[in-house]
Amino acid sequence: MVPISYYLVLAAILFSLGIAAYLVKRNVITIFISIELMLNAVNLTFIAFAHQWNKLNGQIFVFFVMVVAAAEAAVGLAIIIALFRSRQTLNVDQVNLLKG
Amino acid sequence: MEFSYLWWIPLLPFAGFLINGLVGRKFPRTVVAAIALLFTAVPFGLVLKLASTMFASGGPEQISLAGAPWISVSGFTVNFAFNVDHLTLLMLLIVTGVGFLIHLYATGYMAHEEGYWRFFAYLNLFMFFMLVLVLAANFLLLFVGWEGVGLASYLLIGFYFKKDSAANAGKKAFIVNRIGDFGFLLAMFLIIAQFHTLNFTEVFAQIAAHPEWQGGMMTAIALLLVLGATGKSAQIPLYVWLPDAMEGPTPVSALIHAATMVTAGIYMVARSHVLFAHSPTALSVVAVIGALTAIFAASIGLVQNDIKRVLAYSTVSQLGYMFLACGVAAYTGAIFHLMTHAFFKALLFLAAGSVIHAIGGEQDMRAMGGLRKKIPVTFWTMTVGVIAIAGAPPLAGFFSKDEILYQTFASGHVVLWAIGLVTAGMTSFYMFRLWFKTFFGEFQEPAHDTHHGDDHSHAHGVHESPAIMTIPLAILAVLSIVGGWVGIPKAFGGSMEIEHFLSPVFGEPAAVAATASHPSEFGLAAVSVLVAAIGFIFAYVFYYKKPGTLGALAEKNRGLYNVLANKFYIDEIYNGLIVVPTLMFTRLFLAGFIDKGVVDGTGATLGLTAKGGGYLARKIQSGNIRSYAGWLALGAAVLLIAMTFGLKAFGATH
Amino acid sequence: MSSALLSILPEVVLTVTGVLIMLADPFFAPKASKKALGWLAVLGTLGAAGATLLQLRTHQILLTFSGSIQMDTFSVFFHLLIASIVLLTLLVSLDYFKPGATSHSGEYFALVLFGAVGMMLMTCSVELLMVFIGLEISSISTYILAGYRKGQATASESSLKYFLLGSFATAFFLYGIALAFGATGTTSLNGIASGLSVTAFPTMAFLALAMMLVGLGFKVSAAPFHVWTPDVYQGAPAPVVGLMSTAPKAAVFAVLLRITATTYSSELLHARWVWLIGIIAVLSMTIGNLGALLQKDAKRMLAYSSIAHAGYLMVAYTALPADSIAAAAFYTAGYAAMNVGAFAVISQLGGYDEPLRTIDDYRGLAQKHPVLAAALAFFLLSLIGIPFTGGFFGKFYVFNAAIGAGHVWLAVLGLLNSGVACFYYLRLLTALYSRKLGEEGGEFEGSSPAAAIAIAGAVLATLLLGVLPGKVLGLAQRGATVQVSRNR
Amino acid sequence: MTIDSSILSLIVFFPTVGAILLALLPANPTLQKWGALVVTLLTFLFTLHLPAHYQYGLTGYQFEVNVPWIASPAIRYHLGVDGLSMWLVVLSGFLAPLGVLISWRAIDRREKLFYTLFLLQQTAMIGVFVALDLFLYYGFWEWSLVPMAILIATFGRTDKRAKAALKYFLYAFIPSAILLVGMLWVYAQTGTFDLPMLQQMGASHSISSNHAALWLASLAFLVAFAVKVPVFPLHGWLSDAIFEAPTAAVMVLAGKLGLYSILRFSFGIFPEQSRQIAPLMIALGAIGIAYGALVALVQTDLKRLAAYSTLGHLSFITLGIFSFTVAGIDGGVYQIINHGISGGALFMLLGALYERYGTYDMRELGGVAQKLPWMVTLFVITALSNIGLPGLNGFVGEFLTLSGSLQTIYVAHPMLWTTIATTGVIFGAGYMLWAIQRVFYGGMGRRPDEVSGWDLDAREQVALWPMAVLFVVMGVASPYWMRAIDSFGAGAAGRTAVTDVHVYPNPTKNLALPETPVSSTEGGAH
Amino acid sequence: MHLALFFIFGGLAVLAALNLLLQRHPINSALSLVVVMMSLAVLYWSLGAEFLAAAQIIVYSGAVMVLFVFVIMLLNAGEEERTRGSKIASIAGFPGAAAIFCLLSFVFLSEGHKLGLSHLGGSLDEASSNISQISSLLFTDLLLPFEVTSVLILVAILGAVVLAKKER
Question: Which cell locations does it reside in (chain A) (predicted)?
């Protein structure tokens, strides 16, 4: 018997680690990976709450999040490829032509 | 309306102005002159007609002519309205009569000038405004004429606008007059606030009905009016424009700056005598200003070398007399002197013009001499003028000046009387000085010095002026002799007709005059004649007998001489104390600090602040995704905290 | 027609058209002009607009698909708005891709249509799941559209920034949904609305709303979540910017309105929400306007301006329900008309490769293209908020609502901001009408006929919204009444 | 639709129609010029309908048209004129053709743009004068900025034109934004934008009971208007805008709109607050008069000189209207018209001078009178009108405003402020005459020496002489105009029982000794 | 038992996430994420979401992560350079992240008593399996989202084609 709040805190930890990773990582792909981490944290929250409320909606939401994440991954990686083609770099710190 | 022809008195000159001003350029000179003369002569005729009506026994003492409203707002209306009483009539006679003569003279004098049409247009314009001034039935209409003559004076002084000095003098005249007008305006505002009308009859009736109103507001109004008068009538402290005004053509000096316009201040004070009667303070101020101006200007006149400037300072000095007369409530004396002065001063100026004309534009008396034979008519007429102003009986100046001095003495202002007396001596001296320097001594071949004085470079050889100029001289000379006879006091066996004539306006002669003994009046007259004789003797000695002694004297008293020659440095003092500081203050503080600094600076500072904000906003926009994520994270955190714990800090209780 | 089909008819029409375009695309040579497909898309959009009008005529509120779709005047308003924006964008884009510029011009039209499907779905969904999916469809398609000019180094950067930051924000939004679900046990907006007032977890509800606000704030580029906007707009193709600065924002604002409506029943919640939004509004206006002051690039400047406009719009959210909803809805319409128009002109001037970017490049434009310049000037005036333009009435209603609700300070700050704003709009405007041409000699491209129609349409819309706002406002007010009546 | 109810709409929108026509016509300079001239002349003719059919005995609005426009918020298309606005409309109509005439040669490129904007500006301006719905008014008010800003930005004469245009726009727009807040607040309180209704509410103190809020709202109104006037020290934009703007634009740049708005809206909606702030405004007016004249005195550029002169003249009006005396308000309104004509003529002449010598710098000019006699004639007449020579129009207005300011009961020392204000007549003469001297008199300046100028041509004479004639006619026949104005002024000065305003019993008490006449029973100033 | 399961896999997930953060090579990060996902799958299962647990492994860590790894390999991404591109990320971002974490944990823990306890593998409805419940829901009530997802995927495909395809 684990309190639901434990799951939620775990999700919060993962979410924050995702943010942190986003901030730390220089490689575009890794940053993208961090986002996936955040999404996973949210998924965990959903499932925990679904358990709490004893409702399937939460779980189904997670299912859709997975689909969306897959779609995003396809597009995101395509964008990254396009970027790499034009810039020859994956380092975000060097992607700053647009500023000011 | 029986008297509706009065409207034409000012309007005809105005028509002349319009015709000459708009299309005169295309006319030949004779036509221009004819128009100008015609539109001056007819009003003169109308005035004569009017005079005959009013002089006739049983004739009206006062004629009121109300026209359309000019300014009309709820609770306050000013009409175009004329009011003719004996004072006005006298002024009308002087203005139109002397005005016509001077017009006549000018047709000859200006015959070869460029802008002939312009000159006569301006001259007619002047006539228009001057006539409005004297005819006006309320302060505001008077003010129209008042400012209008100032405008005409401005235009005529600056007639030779190519010359910087002329343009400057015109401007100076206008601006100094405006300082006076500033006072006049304020006086009118106060009158409106107090009486809700500007009509002479109503205002004075209200005042007269309340003998208990003394000082206070009355003094304030009166003093402000006096400020106006000092401007127009060239009194201390605003006399400075008049000597410079001699930059204008000589007929202008004669008409405007001697005979008519400059007397407007006297006229206005006399017109407001009911008001002044309620303010002894103001009267004293007037008297003191007058006396001081008289002697002050006379002392400067002692050493001037420009013939017209001598006459100009003399005018200022004589106006001082009139002021003095007003100040001692001897309004009749003031008006009397105003009239005689109009005759002889116009004569003097015209004669001086004739002299200048004769010798090709030279105005410096040091370059003159021995003209007696060359231009006899001018010489003789001028001699009459000089004697008249010097105050020798039985010429006009004697009676009027004597009346003023007597009234001053009789009213107990002994010091002022003494000042007046000394001034009389000085007047005699500088006039004869002028006379001797111009007509006696060695004849000098005129140097054609075109930059100096009127532009008379056409003159070849010294010659007498044409008849069209000498005839007015002659007429004025006659008037200068006989003009005073209307005011021969009883002590001399006269009947003081002018006093009776003006009594509907000023009331019966003051008790002091009535009770004064004839012997004292006779004695005083003798003293003044003596003083005038002393003046003559000095002039005779220094400038005829032993020319050069005075030079030595001046050398010894270099300091005093310089002070006088430089007109007490008043222009410089005004410049240094008022004009330059004002300009510096404006340039540095107002335009520099307030306008550029505060007014513009506030806007600029706000703009810069906004731009600084823009710079910061751009700084945030570093282009780095991780930074952006950082902002997002921070923003999210703040938002979450704010939402969770409420916004008590912001007082969000709603 | 079944009510279920009717309720999503516009989306269906658009989807079908999009699919048709995709099917037809292979029949064209890769780099050939695909204008025909564009016209097809235009037809589809017109069809969708027609379908929306059909919805409008039913005069009823349809709750379909197990309560996840709600067809009401509110949704119809935004459907029409989005359809109009898409229509103008398509018209502007018809000649935007010159033959040979890219081999994907066919997909472009399909993507625009699919994106529109997502946006429309957002506005008619009352189920957060549908909102989320709609949001993702619209987001992903705009991510792609932003990076369309692959040849440009800035394009992929723009796309990447949009994508990475967008996903980041989506995670927050999603977390918010999760928390809302946690607090109320449902992801249906109607359920949440009734659940919020009785929830056992009020703090969680606060967090949920805040998290959603982060995600949605990002999408409408409200400060402090605006950082992506200038970079993305600058790198994206002009017609796309016109689209993505208006249509998805309108959709998100609609969602935000619906979410705001859920808070009305909880006094405490609503008070906090209002204050937060007020502060976000002020921040957005200020940062947006200040940031724009020093910009040289016209698109970038307008990007900052769009941040500011998001701020103005959010002012409406602080007011009482009925007025504010109508005001906000009207504002989105006014803003859409002028902004799409402005970017339409810019896209015509700049062309695909955008040789003319900075304000200096626009110098003297009025001499070369007086009509285009006048149109742009008009849009700029509307953006400033000069009366008799849509922009003015938008602001007018918004601030009127705020003052009506007693938030005079917001109105003062907002209008002061609009004062500051006129500085940079005018800089562009005066450049248009200045004497000298730009340094490069200013070889502007003329506008294509289709784009001319679009620009004329935008001008007309802006003008109509400014002179006769009654019709649109009436629709918005009817929509607002639906929202209020449901939640009160 | 009778002619009386549609004439205002016609006047307002006819220039717009003209502008659209011009925009559609080809950019042929001659065509554009003549087109603009015809349109403006026709508009002027239409405006003349107003004085011809105005019912002078009545107060209140005439030629009204009042139809609903927008349901929510309640906005109506409500136009009308009264004694205040009628002559302003005619004045705007009168100035427009003159503006076209004077631009004939000065605008030698992009005529189409110029005249289109010029006509749009006219619509906005007249619209401001006739709108009786607060919202409608605001619309015109804001719109009046735009064509003007573009005109300055496009046709300004130096490289700083864009900056000047921006400055002008920002100065006017930012306070207008606050004005909008004030308007919306008033609407929130009253539920109406209709001016006559608001005036009634203002008079009966029923707009709001919140005094602080009313104060703030009245300030929001006043500041926006005061900047537009401009009232010292809010004139930061004036000098630069006038310096840059083309003549036709300068003629309508300052004065009218702001002052009218103060009279109509500040006084109308906030009668009490306006009186409370009167001491400040009177002081600013008086200082502005002296300040404008003094600063004008030290300018070397004619346009800047004229700009500060404008400031001075407008300050007379501020002083007058805030005295809340009949004379002050009547004179102020009259002076608005005068300034439109006299100031307009001055700028026209300066523009003509610039066409000839390409400079406004007095240091480069001089002796021009020798070459251009007509020019100098008209210039002197105009200058005299500007410095308020009696018998010309300027005097009537100045005299009334100053006499009004002395009678005001809303400041403690009316004499002091009136005295300061009256110094303006001295300095005013100073800078004007000095300018005339430096430009026209004396020796030949550098430019006139190099460039052969030409005297006023027929077109310019046609444009200028009507103004010169008006100077005189308005100077001697003021009642013709005043009767309409007075019906407004008497109302505005005496409007409502004003509570809560400190009133000083006798305006000239400070000067008067106890025994002097105190005829306060007659109560000239109410 | 349940608690141990939670702590073991929860701990694993956190450690893997930390590893993700600390590793410098993208591949390592990607694989760390796979570990996180695997651990979460266990936790999903423990919360009664069997279907999602399976999907997590098959779809997420299987398909999606493979895509990541594939792209990493395709682009031949090497170790990250530690460039200093952003100060804000650490100045503003980390405090932000920490604050978010603290706030969330605080809220969850303080409201924890109101939240219930989880029971291991507790199916939501004893009568049918998790999968059948989900699928019945998916094809009835949630049919529309399901269908709309197809549009999403269509967009994604389009995007991938448009962006990743080389222009000839």
Answer: Cell membrane; Membrane
